[in-house]
Amino acid sequence: MLDTPPEDSRRAKTCQAGALYAAMIVATVAAFVIIRHFGESQPGRPAPAADSRGAAQPTGGNQLLPHVLIGLAAVVVAGRVVGGVFQYLGQPPVIGEVIAGILLGPSCLGRISPAAAAWVLPEAIVPIMGVLAQLGVILYMFVVGLELDIGLLRQQGRAIVAISHASITAPFLLGALLALGVAPTLAGPHGQFTVFALFLGVAMSITAFPVLARILTDLGLSRTPLGVAALTCAATDDVTAWCLLALVVGVAKSQIGASFTVIVLTLVYIAAMFLVVRPMLLRLTPRADDSPPTRGMFAALLVGLLISSLATEWIGVHAIFGAFVLGAVIPHDSPVAKSLIERVEDVASVLFLPAFFAFTGMRTQIGLISSAGGWLLCGAIIAVATTGKFGGTLAAARCTGFSWRDAAQLGVLMNTRGLMELIVLNIGLDLEVISPTLFAMMVVMAIVTTTATTPVLKLLTPKRQAATH
Fold first, then answer.
1. Which fold is adopted by the domain 57-467?
2. d(Cα 379, Cα 200) in Å, to the nearest integer?
């Protein structure tokens, strides 16, 4: 259980946290401006020579459908098998599914048997797998939005918001500082330093809300004060990180003048969704009582999903942001939301998400990290990501009244990245903001930080607390 301070002490600490929060935001902006000044003065960077899609060779056949079906069957089976092994070992299955995608790509199967890799996942189906992967992520982010309890954010108060944003600003600044050192060699061909530093900061700041929820459920902590605090912080993290990512994508896709338009349109879109669409849905969803939505309502909501995704894509932000926001404005505890989750989640997670993992695996070339220096840099990226997330959360949690143990547990939980990190990294690679080498290093970082969460959390959890849940 969390230590609960007296009311007066809690109010004083909340006021102190508010002042520290304001100072933290101002200091973060000022520090990034300084980092940007030094980064923009660096000399030009050579474009990476490696192809981001992997080393698989085309098969030469014109019949793509059989190859697509074979590829989908292979990635679904591999994902279930490897994911099951990781679940048996007490790890989130999503880590096994990610590794299964990498095993089927050029990093493993492509090295062992190029002919087998070309037969299972030929380069000719890469565009199709990319479309399926994007569709899968759109559906998945819609489900994540449906599961987000916006009311929980209001209930937890300013302290949780301060902790959440501290867990973003600390890794964000460390990521921007890291960009100073790696930009000359690891930035993508279209990655101006400002965009590169912003993107690396956002990528370091991600917390995987769905994976975190699964870990807490598996450990029996989801309904404890610590679990509620972690879920609330992660949800706030998600909303903030996606807004930051929308800004980065808008800046990366547009000229300086057009970037302002993208930002304004994004804010208008968010306001319209929460001020117009959400009240409409709040009036409509109670009419369903306990009955599931009809096929007509289900079809209408799916059309709304497509329109919302198209709107953010047209604005200049990725389509998955529109899917996430639409899910978030639908009341999460309504029969409509529960029915949508049941209908969409299985199809998205069992069929389409493995295609995303395979697509990520085909783009991840571990062989690009070939030298001792490359692996040292990869280790430094892991250390920076962990230090920022864990340290920022720990410091803010202590300032708002958490005990050292609870603050440390919260810091470990917030360091979970998983699928959300891969989505962000794929966006960066598509925009050519990061190079394939940095993409591979960041994928390794996402796997390591997520894999470490459960064992480290168990070490920090008292045996009595674990036994009661």
1. Na+/H+ antiporter like fold (1.20.1530)
2. 16
